[in-house]
């Protein structure tokens, strides 16, 4: 009789331990899944922010390149006018600036 009671107690302890460990394992897995979802959401949002910033920088780069091209074209187009003005200056005016430079 004592042996039978001892066997039932051991069976009860084993079943209780099994259900308890299964429940705690289940809770740990649930917490781990929640944490993984939060991390995935965080990194997805970070990737979206990075993509938006990359798009913004690409647009700024295109605008800068267009401005650079326009400025270069403006300089190239004005050089002949500057050269023509240099040729059109009176001879005595050119010598005046040369004399002023020699004095210094």
Description of the molecule:
The protein is an all-alpha fold and 104 residues long. The protein has a domain at 34-78. It contains 2 helices and no strands. It has helices at residues 2-88, 91-103. The longest helix is centred in the middle third of the chain and has 87 residues, at 2-88. The N and C termini lie far apart (126 Å). 0% of the residues are buried. The mean pLDDT is 84.
The gist of it:
The chain is an all-alpha fold and 104 residues long. It has helices at 2-88, 91-103. The model has no long low-confidence stretch (mean pLDDT 84).
Shape: rod-shaped
Main sheet specs: none
Q: How confident is the prediction overall: mean pLDDT? A: 84
Give the C-alpha Rg: 42 Å
**Protein structure class:** mainly alpha
Topology pattern, helix = H, strand = E: HH
How many distinct beta strands?
0
**Total DSSP helices:** 2
Poorly predicted ranges: none
Portion of residues in helices? over 70%
Task: Present the secondary structure layout.
Blueprint: H1 2-88, H2 91-103
């Amino acid at each position: 009789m004592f042996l039978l009671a001892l066997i039932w107690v051991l069976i009860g302890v084993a079943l209780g331990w099994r259900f308890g460990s299964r429940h705690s394992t289940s809770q740990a897995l649930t917490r781990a899944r929640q944490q993984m979802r939060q991390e995935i959401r965080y990194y997805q949002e970070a990737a979206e922010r990075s993509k938006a910033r990359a798009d913004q920088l690409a647009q700024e780069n295109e605008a800068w390149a267009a401005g650079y091209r326009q400025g270069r074209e403006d300089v190239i187009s004005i050089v002949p006018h500057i050269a023509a003005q240099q040729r059109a200056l009176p001879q005595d005016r050119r010598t005046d600036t040369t004399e002023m430079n020699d004095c210094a």
